[in-house]
Design goal:
Number of helices: 8
Radius of gyration: 21 Å
Helix content: 25-40%
Largest sheet: 6 strands, mixed
CATH class of the largest domain: Alpha Beta
CATH architecture of the largest domain: 2-Layer Sandwich
Structural class: alpha/beta
CATH topology of the largest domain: Nucleotidyltransferase, domain 5
Number of domains: 2
Strand content: 15-25%
Strand order of the largest sheet: 3-2-1-4-8-7
CATH superfamily of the largest domain: 2-keto-3-deoxy-galactonokinase, C-terminal domain
Shape: globular
Distance between the termini: 33 Å
Order of helices and strands: EEEHEEEEEEEHEEEHHHHEHEH
Amino acid sequence: MTSGRVTADWIAVDWGTSNMRAWAMSASGDVLAEASSDQGMGKLAREGFEPALLAVAGAWISKPTTVIACGMVGSRQGWVEAPYAAVPCPTLPEGLVRAPTQDPNLQVHVIPGIKQVDPADVMRGEETQISGFLARNPRWDGVICLPGTHTKWVHISADEVVSFQTFMTGELFDTIAKHTVLRHSVASAGWDDAAFLTGLEQAIARPERLAARLFSLRANGLLHDMAGTTARAQLSGLLIGAELAAAKPYWLGQQIAVIGDSGLAKLYVDALATQAAPATQVNAKAITLAGLTTAYKRLKG
């Protein structure tokens, strides 16, 4: 964890299931210091959130300080439940929810998530990134892809979330690679660009054959000594290809932005390029901070 000897005008927090990131902010929106912790929502009981925040950001607080938080901190198992806004709705939902605190200098406000009733879907945290992207790209219409454990495709029009769809592609990759028969065939690291493109093309062309293609990875390892790195990349290509085939009504003919600075986000950009669907890759940290800053400015009027 890194920190700084500063006094924050306000504090921005991105609190996920596994980790928490915090930034000491100036009134004008500059980052004065930043810190992180492995005390994600999944490790904390409700009474543990305030101590976890103070352990990271307490040195920045010497006066009544506003904290703007997004992510799983607002879930049912989080610090305070911030109810979902229903689509269609603004990219940054109205109604920040105040979290209960013991420290009189802490004023914690949590950003609500967004829900879609039919087909059922939810997001928490992504709405803040989307808001930050639109703050930097006014009047932008199109589709935003947010790759991750649960990748989201979000249709944006007139500064509203119109609809969205979540794919468990990242979690499926991890589960298949580690907890199925393919664990004997898929390497834990390494890459093969050609194998990724092969899997991608196979799944986009015939997504209904995904389950059969998956077992072929095992058979190719046994019969043809397919390298584990090749199997890893092809597995990724198959799963992302099946996702792109299913999400085609979202991205086809649309302006596309991919939010993420990881190698995974680059894979999505490259995969879309093979379908003549150019996408712009955007830095996730900067966009998250822009969204949290937008919420702070709205709160302060």
